[in-house]
Write a structure and sequence with these properties.
This protein has helices at residues 34-49, 73-81, 88-105, 122-129, 156-159, 167-174, 180-186, 198-206, 214-234, 240-243, 245-251, 256-264, 271-282, 285-295, 303-320, 323-332, 350-357, and strands spanning 5-11, 17-23, 53-60, 65-67, 111-115, 118-120, 132-135, 140-142, 191-192. By secondary structure, it is α/β, with parallel strands linked by helices. It has a single domain (5-365), classed as Alpha-Beta Complex (2-enoyl-CoA Hydratase, Chain A, domain 1). It has a six-stranded mixed β-sheet, with helices on both faces. Strands 4-6-8 form a three-stranded parallel β-sheet. The radius of gyration is 20 Å and the shape is globular. The relative contact order is 0.13. The mean pLDDT is 97.
Length: 372
């Protein structure tokens, strides 16, 4: 049993229990390892089938982060040692991570995610799977995969394409850090509390009249969170994403070269937009193409099919994309000077993109074939 993730149950006055999951590697901002993912999958599957568990809560240790993403170092080392080959490490990590995310989406019982502090990458995959997603004044939510030669996975193909206008494409290309107002605007958060209200929330949850009726339990928890959120919604500042939605849509309109030109020539006094512009233009040109391919999926695909598509693309990125170089520059050598495979977005070979988005498995052999 790994102590990197702690499982507890909270008793309630109703006699039902609440399953508590705490990601517990504070010094690594609770980044997900394969062991943590496997432990959570096993425990959550038990709780899903346990009639005494009415609800599940996901939380992160410490003040800084719920979860800053996946710990990809093991995948990096395996991929560097086996160039141009899909490694067991990449397959296992992404397969199990997506199985966990999908389990949360399909859980049935209420899943409350306490999205305080940093919620990035794989952390956002967990949060998006929750039915009740709480953000706070300290929430900083982003999909920064463009900086490591990946693309917003963990279900991003599903939820980014369902955001207002071109917001999803903007978030993918720029790794923009959303605040609580932004998260509520795009639907990643659905309740807002203060960071110091966690204990009062858990105390109030212990007093709810939980039953074995999941639908009723969803309504109970929604009612409690709606009441507690009310004062914060009244005082909420305007979301930059909402305020500048029209400009973002214009900036993101056209094909990939149009958008690259529009971002390159953008002249703005807005600090948050300058940061977004800088990150996008420094990102992997391959990632740009993958993010556009992802946006082109639209809203027709089921969540299950989105995860299947992503698994193929993710393992391909590790074997023949910019992933290893991005991880090296950002996390291993930390020189922040990635040498991408292509000099710019215009130079990316269309065949390379086709290779990356082509599943390495026949449909019946797909590791996620049982997703329905």
């Amino acid at each position: 049993m790994t102590q990197d993730v702690i499982f507890q149950t909270l008793g309630t006055l109703s006699g039902q229990s609440i399953g508590m999951v705490t990601l517990n590697i504070e010094k690594a901002l609770n980044a997900l390892t394969l062991d943590m993912v496997a432990a959570m999958q096993a425990q959550l599957t038990k709780w899903q089938q346990d009639d005494s568990i009415a609800c599940v809560v996901l939380d992160g240790a410490g003040e800084k982060a719920f979860c800053a993403g996946g710990d990809v170092r093991a995948i990096y080392h395996a991929s560097v040692a086996n160039p141009n080959n899909i490694t067991t490490e990449a397959c296992e990590f992404f397969t199990q991570e997506y199985q966990l995310d999908y389990l949360l989406h399909q859980f049935g019982k209420p899943v409350l995610v306490w999205g305080d502090g940093i919620v990035m990458g794989g952390g956002l995959g967990l949060m998006a799977g929750g039915s009740h997603r709480v953000v706070t004044e300290r929430s900083r939510i982003a999909m920064p995969e463009v900086t490591i030669g990946l693309y917003p996975d963990v279900g991003g193909s599903y939820f980014l394409n369902r955001m207002p206008g071109k917001t999803g494409l903007f978030l993918g290309l720029t790794a923009y850090n959303m605040n609580c107002a932004d998260a509520l605007y795009v639907g990643l958060g659905n309740h807002i509390l203060n960071s110091d209200e966690k204990e009062p929330l858990y105390n109030a949850m212990a007093e709810l009249a939980w039953s074995q009726d999941s639908e009723q339990n969803h309504q109970l928890l929604s009612g409690l969170l709606t009441n507690m959120s009310q004062p914060h919604l009244a005082a909420l500042s305007v979301s930059p994403l909402q305020q500048f939605q029209a400009q973002i849509d214009l900036l993101m309109s056209g094909d990939i070269l149009d958008v690259h030109h529009q971002l390159s020539s953008l002249n703005t006094d807005l600090d948050w937009l300058k940061r977004a512009q800088k990150t996008a233009l420094a990102g992997s040109p391959i990632s740009w193409h993958l993010i556009f391919a992802q946006a082109a999926l639209g809203t027709e695909m089921s969540l299950a099919d989105c995860f299947k598509w992503e698994l193929g693309v993710s393992v391909n990125c590790c074997s023949m994309g910019d992933f290893c170089e991005g991880v090296r520059a950002l996390l291993i050598d930390k020189d922040r000077q990635p040498k991408w495979l292509f000099a710019d977005v215009d130079a990316v070979d269309a065949n390379k993109v086709t290779q990356l988005v082509t599943s390495p498995w026949a449909e019946d052999k797909h590791p996620l074939a049982d997703f329905t």
